[in-house]
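worker-03 picked up job from queue 'complexes'. Input manifest follows; two sequence lines, order preserved.
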Amino acid sequence: MKIANKTVTATRLVKDALEKVKYFEDYNIFTYLDQDGALKRAAEIDERISRGEKVGRLAGVPFAAKSNFLVKGYPTTASAHILEEFDSPITATSVQKLLDEDAILIGLTNCDAFAHGSSTENSYFGVTLNSCDRERVAGGSSGGSAVAVALDVVEFTTGTDTGGSIRQPASFNGIYGFKPTYGCISRYGVVAMASSLDCIGFFTKTPEDMDLLMSIASGQDSKDLTTLPDFYDNSDSMTSVFANIATNGELLASEPRNDGRERSGLQKHLSRIGVIKDFDNEVVDTEIRNALKEKCELLKSKGYEIVELEMPALKYALAAYYIIQPAEVTSNLSRYDGVRYGFRSHETTDLSSLYSKTREEGFMPENKRRIMIGNFVLSSGFYDAYFLKAAKARTLIINEYEEAFKKCDFILTPVSPNPAFKIGEKVNNPVAMYLEDLMSVSLNLAGVPGLTIPAGTSKNGLSLGLQIVGPRRSDKTLINFSKELI
Amino acid sequence: MEIKREDILHLADLSNFSVSEKEAESLGEDLQNIISYISELDNLNTDGVEPTYQVFEMKNIWRDDEIIPQEASREDLLALTKEEKDDQIKVPKVL
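worker-03 finished. Artifact:
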């Protein structure tokens, strides 16, 4: 079945993907490539198909994982020097679920070290180039994963989103990027950044593919006790392009589909879409604001009502985020000491210098800034003024979203204030880089889902994106609703 | 607030890494800018607001106290360290 009795084989699909990896080598998308392993798995799947055995829903579909996902035997570096000599002893639950459906993993993708960054410039393995303009950043932190899908190297990739690390690079590269409700997908086997904010998600070319991946990867996991009881509805999965690859032997569609299929009667259930008043200002690029207006007009023409929302606490989300996130980073990164795994400095004389030298040499400057800021906001004397204050701001932000979702079904906002910026433009100015996350971090603070959708291109050819934000656990409806905006 | 050189060295010490003279200077400037930015939070009134640390308010979720076989073996884990001896991880002298 599936790719089975058709013209395309898993081996062909994997070979094509590997050729594209080579063709786009100078984009610096991958930190690790498992050519032999991928071809071997493809051959096994082809063999099973030829024997008439049942294969999984992702049979033969090549994909890549961000370099902070553990895959047994793979060098999971999180694109950091300090993890350079680490070979994963386990496989992340999310990746395992994809492998169980016979998807074929071809390698790991570049990101900012430990996912600290918004441009993939903070990687120990160098910068990843934007898919539309090679002088610009891929976005981040999941830049490699975004570019891999945008350039059609693989069908989908995994990512992590702590403050926008899936949504912003998806927007910079004109594809779909989804950050689910907190706790929807298991974090087991993924390098932790800020545990109360971290979410696992995907990059795809269509909402249909996203839905299929969510239905496979979501669900409670005894290995991650913060996962929520299953809520992602798997009963009526949309038709994924992957399924088309499988049934028709059709090769890798590169454009998002709009085949005019009948809409799913969404208007019956959803009627009001919110826009945030404060985000319509000069901080946001004119072309992004225009893209938002155009999408609102499209929705109006389909019978939706556009509701203007006042969310005054949101402008404090970034400050709260850059307190809570580094505080959790400090704690999570204390485990990298050169003792049990990863890089160990050669300049050591005693145990204490083993720790401090390993950490000095092993962390990137941005890792160090975040660890130090975390220690600062948690220090006695500053805890109340910073960490506790930010935790209270978080409550206000959650309340604001709850109020907003009484007035509307979903919110449509920009993902980032601007399209992809030039490589080097912000790398030496941490605050300018943090401001990239202005519109994305509040979702992580509130635990709500958000999907980046493509919204055309700027006049100089850069991808524009918008994000749809929904209430907690609205993930399935949200992805379905995004089809209204194609 | 103003971040002084000794604050940077203290924070580096808490963070368990050493910083060079040059690094201390650039980190000082960066941290100053970041702290100025996050101090904007002072303008938000949070009187009477309870803090949130986990969005679903989960706290101390325990599993049953049972031995579950782990995917990674003792050998797998020991293979990750730089030096081992007699099934133990070896580090430089402590005292």
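worker-03 released lock.
Chain B touches chain A through 51 residues (CB under 8 Å).
The CA atoms of residues 4 and 28 of chain B lie 7 Å apart.
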